[in-house]
């Protein structure tokens, strides 16, 4: 089980009232909400291994170099000599180090790699997996990893993590008209304002799906653009031709990496905390209460 951790703690932050606070009054709604999420996931799915995948770089420069608008609208502060700061609610930012400390004390593997997003870490773990993989995320970008043949599915939270959409090839075909392997092509053709991806003007989701169905993939579509006998409408041919510079670089931006240099890490689900003393101190300092108790109980089963 691979957690898109930022996606989940953002959902926890907005789903749990900020009246949930530590003894000193500091909000811990994201911390406690994430712990409850993980407890429910462990309880319901009993994974053998669990990795909390992190954004070591939420907006890698190599993606920005290819498409400058990539996530540009989320930049809160630009740093010419380093990574730009992401716009995060004031009361969420201080909770992220607490989440990291709690996961480390529990012994839940936590992996982030410089110059890569959590999606890329998830993509690489998935590529290396020798058995089924459950990816837990509220980000549809990871639908591109869905693969029935390899047992890879996305568990997409509909309401908390108590109601999850188990996303397999059938769900993708029904909702989007494409299999997992072609979802990235669909996404880059239609664009994604939430990620600053412009897409091809005039090519929406349904048209993109029809083009993929007719020509197989992006390479097949672009071959059709250059083939005067291919069955494209004049407007489609014109729009796709004009978008060639974008379409030449977009696949590298949209596709998650599968070759991230992952560190050696024990991904086994811990039955007991790695550092009980540190965990006790964190529980007292931050008032983790029933959320931590529930997670410990789920891990011990």
Give a verbal description of the structure.
By secondary structure, the chain is an alpha/beta fold. The chain is built from 13 helices and 8 strands. The chain has helices at 5-15, 29-45, 61-66, 95-106, 118-128, 169-176, 183-190, 205-215, 218-225, 234-242, 244-254, 276-286, 289-300; strands spanning 2-4, 51-53, 75-77, 85-86, 109-111, 133-136, 152-159, 163-167. It has a 6-stranded mixed beta sheet, sandwiched between helices. Helix 2 (29-45) packs parallel to helix 4 (95-106) and helix 7 packs across helix 8 (205-215). The two termini are 17 Å apart.
Please describe the structure with a list of short key phrases separated by commas or semicolons:
301 residues; alpha/beta; 6-stranded mixed beta sheet; two-stranded antiparallel sheet; 45% helix
Average of pLDDT: 93
Uncertain stretches of 5 or more adjacent residues: none
User: Main beta sheet, described?
Assistant: 6 strands, mixed
Annotation, overall tally of beta strands:
8
Overall SS class: alpha/beta
> SSE order in H/E notation?
EHHEHEEHEHEEEHHHHHHHH
Beginning-to-end CA distance, first to last residue = 17 Å
Report the principal-axis shape.
elongated
Q: What portion of residues belong to β-strands? A: 5-15%
Helicity level, as a percent range? 40-55%
Rg calc = 21 Å
- The strand order across the widest sheet is 5-2-1-6-7-8
Number of helices: 13
Topology:
Blueprint: E1 2-4, H1 5-15, H2 29-45, E2 51-53, H3 61-66, E3 75-77, E4 85-86, H4 95-106, E5 109-111, H5 118-128, E6 133-136, E7 152-159, E8 163-167, H6 169-176, H7 183-190, H8 205-215, H9 218-225, H10 234-242, H11 244-254, H12 276-286, H13 289-300
Parallel strand pairs: 1-2, 1-6, 2-5, 6-7
Antiparallel strand pairs: 3-4, 7-8
Helix pairs in contact: 1-2, 2-4, 2-13, 4-12, 7-8, 7-11, 8-9
